[in-house]
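Researcher: Checking consistency across runs. Here is Dienelactone hydrolase family protein again:
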Amino acid sequence: MPTKTLQIPTADGQADAFAVFPDGGERHPGVLLYPDALGIRPVLKEMARQLAEHGYYVLVPNIFYRHGPAPVVELPEYIGEEARPTVIAQLMPMIQAHTAERALRDADAYLTFLTAQPEVSAGPVATIGYCMGAVSAMRTATAHPDKVAAVAGFHPGPLVTDAPDSPHHRFPELTAQVHLGLAEGDMSPEALTELNQALDTAGVGYTTEVYPGTVHGFTMSDTEAFNPAALQHHWDCLLPLLDRTLANR
């Protein structure tokens, strides 16, 4: 299956990215996949390949490109309990610098680039994300309702906060169908109720689900949070969402 390392022009420079898509010279619906805070690494590339096998062109940007090409910090093959504090301490300044304003500027560039690729078919795309990438996926979908037909987030970062730029404030702009797969403890019951109410008000088709027996990061097989059954359930929810929303399958 063809893979490419790409450079995406942005308002702030060049974002390196990984892309994978089916062979055969045909065009395929585009999927913008935002990684978790640990960034582009072998497990993310493998997940992108699995998704591409179902008929999609998958673009995975390095969201921390302002700090250097991926991997922006050296990551162990397995990020267990001992390694995690050091890794997160290195990443935290980059996470904090990745503001909503930056995420929205980048979303413009990523979507423009994705939809211009010769292997990507005309029509809407999907945005999906993990951890903080789920927040970016949702911001992208609300900022570009004419381009994004599906948005999915797994063990998402904060979608409901007291901040003026909380993602849920822009849900009324959504037109995409939504699936959010939460780990136990990702959101308080009150925040989840507010999230669902905001999606109800938006009038979009959506599902929000707390995946039982999970902790934050459950899709990532290179971390101690990994839950194989929850990863499979994530595919079982994600693939039908993409199948019913993206054209030219």
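Researcher: Does this match what you'd expect to see?
Model: One thing to look at in this run: The first strand starts at residue 3 and ends at 10.
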